[in-house]
Amino acid sequence: MIKKIIPAILIIITFLSGCSMMDAVKDIGKLKFKLHSVTDVKLCGINLDDKKKISDFDLIDLGVLVSAFANNDFPVEMIINIEAKNNSPELMDSDYDDVKIKTFPWKLYLNDNLTAMGNITKPVSVPGKGRTTLMSIDADFDLLQVFRGMGYKKLARLVLGIGKRDASESTKIKITAKPTVETILGDYEYPEEIVLIQKDIK
Question: Which whole-number Å values give the CA distances from 38 to 58, 59, 160, 192, in the listed order?
Fold first, then answer.
């Protein structure tokens, strides 16, 4: 316990000599987020890994889509991968510059329409000294609850366009979030939402 307390005290003294406690927490808890990729996309239970356009669906797949659409149920599942980079200054030669993302309340927008929202289910650790961690969030939603008045083919193209799957009809994706991170000096809640846009996606 003493081995943990003494370095923490030294860190606090170092930071407080030139800034306030809040500034110190903010400095250590500073992370850079980037929309990395969208993977494991499924539409009505159909895996889209090998599909880029409507003609890639076989007759069985199309039957599933038509049936789901007729029943007013057009579910989408996907994993959104977000890269978190620790930009905090290197503190001594220890793990005390590691931070933990405690909460990450996010909102997903497709073509500027609020489509889904959620939060991480457990904290995510981000090592210090400029290292990165890939954080995955599950996004499940029903397209018919957001995009009304569209046919099933147009809805399918919208999903195929996520992550540039279909270059001819790319779907604009955006994530907003207001993280809270835990540092050696305490918790830091971002004062404003961060915005992650499609241009960074791989």
Answer: 23, 26, 11, 24
pLDDT (tens digit per residue) in 140-160? 999 999 998 899 999 999 999
For 111-145, how does the pLDDT look when each residue is reduced to its tens digit (9 = 90+)? 999 999 999 999 999 887 778 999 999 999 999 99
Contacts 24+ apart (CB under 8 A), 170-173: 170/198, 171/110, 171/111, 172/109, 172/110, 172/111, 172/112, 172/198, 173/35, 173/38, 173/108, 173/109, 173/110, 173/197, 173/198, 173/201
Query: Could you tell me if 103 and 119 are in contact, meaning their C-beta atoms sit under 8 angstroms apart?
Result: yes
Contact 86, 97 (CB under 8 A): yes
Instruction: For residue 171, give the DSSP letter.
Output: P
Q: How far is Cα 8 from Cα 22, in angstroms, rounded to an integer?
A: 15
Cα–Cα distance measured from residue 30 to residue 5, given in angstroms and rounded to the nearest whole number: 22
| Interaxial angle between packed helices 152-160 and 59-70, expressed in degrees from 0 to 180 and rounded to the nearest 10 | 110
pTM: 0.80
